[in-house]
UniProtKB/TrEMBL annotation:
UniProt-listed GO biological process terms: gamma-aminobutyric acid catabolic process
Family matches, as Pfam families: Aminotran_3
GO molecular function terms noted in the UniProt entry: 4-aminobutyrate:2-oxoglutarate transaminase activity; pyridoxal phosphate binding
Example of a GO cellular component annotation carried by this entry: mitochondrion
Catalytic reaction(s) noted: 4-aminobutanoate + 2-oxoglutarate = succinate semialdehyde + L-glutamate
Organism, scientific name: Macrostomum lignano
Transmembrane helix is among the record's keywords: no
Keyword list, A-Z: Aminotransferase, Pyridoxal phosphate, Transferase
Membership in a protein family: Belongs to the class-III pyridoxal-phosphate-dependent aminotransferase family.
Swiss-Prot/TrEMBL cofactor(s): pyridoxal 5'-phosphate
Domain of life from the UniProt record: Eukaryota
Stretches for region Disordered: 26-50
The protein's name: Uncharacterized protein
Length: 386
């Protein structure tokens, strides 16, 4: 019998095919909360008094996160969010761009209330050791059905930061496997890594771009360069960063300037990789298709084609961070598909609109031992259908 989770996935895909990413998520049955005709403000300001009261209470019990207001999700629908004071707002934020079809979509509610979905939610399988019997079928019907061209493997994770961190680990493991050239790991390596020392703990680096954002967890912060407040007071790896092309617009009026910017960036990549070989070799390069959190910064497909070619020449795997751009936001399911690459990236990370995190990757990034890229749940199993 086809699992309810698979039906959930098919419902999502059907909505995407019908243009659900571009249209308001209108209710499909009378039992769902109807989407409002438009915004409605009941209080003198937003946040209203009830939200302000709850903010004061929350800030005494957890880290203050700059809460905008408290929401009433039972009354929210489609593209509109309702707060605890009864204000109805057109939601351009959509939970940091992680809500694919708006609030309380009835097609997804129906499947989420099924027995199978409930079982997976409360049992939280440790997917790396005891996945459900139809796990491969679910991967094929969901994540692998939209895999970037040329990448036929996927590792699930919980969020974008942990997807990037584990993808970076895979890049390091790939580099060291090449250095060993088939020899077994030595006892010296095993002993020294327990002390965070050479040779078991190698001095390697990841190359990123200035103004990029790849997450807030401890390791990946060394690649994040968008805002100082993210990194302040936190120890970091001394990993290099280079300039992303700084275009002038309109593009057709600044072709010479923009071509120079692209060349400058590519030269910096090559020079940095070569310079790092003597100290902390670059095990991989990470890039966003759009430097979103850093300021909505774009580059032409021609630049990314040249970057892909340069990475291949330098034997530096290319990791494309599609946490913010993946899921159909850019006209194709993955933004990098618009580059027209001759060969795929070595890895693509995702999260947000896919409702879990993960890594698509090539065969050359498969670790040589089990449990090297692993955590308890490896993502939220009940979300795989989405």
């Amino acid at each position: 019998m086809q699992s309810s989770l698979l039906k959930y996935r098919q419902a999502v895909m059907a909505l995407r095919t019908a243009g659900g990413l571009l249209r308001p998520a209108r209710p499909m049955s009378s039992s769902a909360v109807a989407e409002p005709a438009g915004p409605s403000i009941r209080t003198d300001s937003v946040p209203g008094p009830r939200s302000k009261q709850l903010m004061e209470e929350a800030n005494k019990k957890q880290l203050p996160h700059g809460i905008y207001f408290f929401a009433d999700y039972s009354k929210s629908s489609g593209n509109y969010i309702v707060d605890v004071d009864g204000n109805t707002l057109l939601d351009m934020f959509m939970q940091i761009s992680s809500l694919p079809f708006g609030y309380n979509h009835p097609a997804l509610q129906k499947v989420a209330q099924s027995k199978e979905f409930l079982e997976m939610s409360i049992n939280r399988p440790a997917l790396g050791v005891c996945p459900p019997s139809d796990w491969v079928d679910r991967l094929n019907a969901s994540l692998l059905s939209v895999a970037p061209k040329g990448l036929s493997r996927v590792q699930t994770m919980m969020c974008g930061s942990c997807a990037n961190e584990n993808a970076i680990k895979m890049l390091f493991m790939r580099y060291m496997a090449k250095q060993r050239a088939g020899r077994p790991v030595s006892q010296q390596e095993l002993d020294s890594t327990m002390l965070n020392e050479l040779p078991g703990t190698p001095r390697l680096s990841i190359l990123s771009f200035k103004r990029s954002f790849h997450g807030r967890t401890l390791g990946v912060l060394s690649c994040t360069r968008s805002k100082a407040i993210h990194k302040l007071d936190v120890p970091a790896f001394q990993w290099p960063a280079v300039d992303f092309p700084a275009y002038k617009y309109p593009l057709e009026q600044h072709q010479e300037h923009n071509a120079k910017q692209e060349k400058l960036s590519l030269v910096q990549v090559e020079e940095t990789v070569n310079r790092q070989r003597a100290t902390e070799p670059v095990a991989g390069l990470i890039v966003e298709p759009i430097l979103a959190e850093g300021g909505d910064i774009h580059a032409r497909p021609e630049y990314f084609k040249a970057l892909r070619s340069l990475c291949s020449k330098l034997d530096v795997p290319l990791l494309v961070d599609e946490v913010q751009t993946g899921g159909g936001l850019c006209g194709t399911y993955w933004a990098h598909e618009q580059w027209g690459l001759d060969s795929p990236p070595d890895a693509v990370t995702f999260s947000k609109r896919t409702l879990l995190g993960g890594i698509y990757f090539s065969d050359n990034l498969v670790p040589d031992q089990q449990y090297r890229v692993y955590n308890t749940w490896l993502g939220a199993q009940q979300s795989h259908a989405a």
